[in-house]
Design goal:
heterodimer; A: mainly beta; 4-stranded antiparallel beta sheet; 9 strands; about 45% strand; globular; B: mainly beta; 7-stranded mixed beta sheet
Chain lengths: ~110, ~120
């Protein structure tokens, strides 16, 4: 499974757009990119997944450049409730759905 | 659906005692995962099952840990004997594994284990 690198922490203010970039230089052809969110005292929760270009849902957008060696999770107009740890994961189906979580990015949103 | 259900939510025990954590996956899901989370080591995958069969237990720390999945709706993680360094939050997750699909894992609320 490809290793990912993301910032340990980020600070933001309410109403701002937050972009968290993840590096995955060794991503394989069949790998897809998935982001999870974890609030304190809760299990991780799926946010978004993509393979290439841009994916958008009601929560976030995911931007993936052509070389796929990085990806950026974009959270529009964050609120205090977006304070959480965000994990970037890379993997494919060959591992039976296995996921390896890195250290994640701890996002702190301030008023 | 009620989601992934774990019990107990909190467990406090003394060193040397046997601890059993329980998990009920989402109905219809065919994969189940056990994770452990600590401040020092983050979120670690311990073991996972596909169709009730253990696929990869390379994350199980040592022989004191064992996991079973007797049927599609129930799994246990047992620690015997428990040690203080086993103190952590243990998460269970399930997914519907289909080749080429999103394979999203849904996590339970976790069991916070304290071994004194």
């Amino acid at each position: 499974l490809a290793k990912t690198t993301q910032p340990i922490s980020m600070d933001s203010y309410e109403g701002q757009e937050v972009n968290i970039t993840c590096s995955h230089n060794n991503i394989a052809t069949n790998d897809y990119i998935t982001w999870y969110q974890q609030f304190p005292s809760q299990g991780p929760r799926f946010i978004i997944q993509g393979y290439k270009t841009k994916v958008t849902n009601e929560v976030a957008s995911l931007f993936i450049p052509a070389d796929r060696k990085s990806s950026t999770l974009s959270l529009p107009r964050v609120s205090l409730s977006d304070t959480a740890v965000y994990y970037c994961l890379v993997g494919d189906d060959n591992q039976g759905g296995k996921l390896i979580f890195g250290q994640g990015t701890e996002l702190s949103v301030k008023p | 659906d009620a989601g992934v259900i774990q019990s107990p939510r909190h467990e406090v025990t003394e060193m040397g005692q046997e601890v059993t954590l329980r998990c009920k996956p989402i109905s219809g899901h065919n994969s189940l995962f056990w994770y452990r989370q600590t401040m020092m080591r983050g979120l670690e995958l311990l073991i996972y099952f596909n169709n009730n069969v253990p696929i990869d237990d390379s994350g199980m720390p040592e022989d004191r840990f064992s996991a079973k999945m007797p049927n599609a709706s129930f799994s246990t993680l047992k620690i015997q004997p428990s040690e203080p360094r086993d103190s952590a939050v243990y998460f269970c997750a399930s997914s519907l594994f289909l080749s080429g699909a999103k394979n999203i894992q849904y996590f339970g609320a976790g069991t916070r284990l304290s071994v004194l």
